[in-house]
Amino acid sequence: MHDRVIGPFFFTEKTVSSVVSLDIMENFVFPQLEELQSHVFLQQHGAPPHWGTIVCSSLNDHFTGRWIGRGGLIPWPPRSPDIMPLAFCLWGFVKDTVYRRRVSNFYDLKVRITTAIASVDADMLAVIALIEEKLPVIERLHHGETIKKAEKHLTQWANCSIDGEKKESAYTSVVSSVI
After folding, report:
1. How far apart, in Å, do the first and last CA atoms of the chain sit?
2. Cα-based torsion angle of the residue sequence 71, 75, 87, 54 in order, rounded to the nearest 10 degrees
3. For residue 28, is it within any domain?
4. SS3 41
5. Residue-by-residue DSSP string for 98-111
6. Is there a domain that residue 178 lies in?
7. Tens-place pLDDT, residues 129-149
8. Average pLDDT, whole number, for the chain?
């Protein structure tokens, strides 16, 4: 199930409204998720354009009971960015990759984001799934400390060369940090 990342999607409008957000979902997100729909939970953050009435209504139609976010049946946990695997693993990796060097312009930023997302492979997503599975235990036992270690190791692992030995070693570090 955790075998791909869909996106990225870039808003080209200067102001992102609920109408623009809904347009992106209907034209890009929903069609790509159609085949996976019964197995997918969609996660939205709390930006106002993402929880406007028209957006929530459309999400309820397409992902009834299977979307996480403000205005939905499953609320986004308040003040919880570091307990959401997408926030601390995937976006941490993308941010580290994109800002490794100074970004020169908007086009450069978009290219780097697209390249970073494209480099996320099934192995990395499997590690994120493992972390997600172990998260309740991690939080209870370590009060978040292990999450910070796992994020560091995941970023190191994802940035390793394709050399299997190096990647396997970092993968083991992530797994041992999580378990």
Report:
1. 21
2. -20
3. yes
4. coil
5. HTTS---SHHHHHH
6. no
7. 776 676 666 556 555 555 555
8. 73
